[in-house]
Design brief:
mainly alpha, two-stranded antiparallel sheet, 3 helices
Amino acid sequence: MDLDAVLARHPAVRYCLDWSEQQHHLAGPLGTALADRLFALDWVRRTDRRRVVRITEAGRENLPGRWGCPVIGTSRPSSAVR
């Protein structure tokens, strides 16, 4: 990610409470850049529901080791997610 470009536009992180799960999440330019990178790596994919993503098998394998992010709900993905 080009952090200089991300940080030059706006504050890097914005306080945001997810409306559906009532959990805080990363928002703002840094959150957008991170999401774009995860989509590009095919670690997450969009679903047919607005604002919902699924972690792919590649994401399940790489997120914990590379970024130290635990993957919650580690059951096998459905065939639509693979």
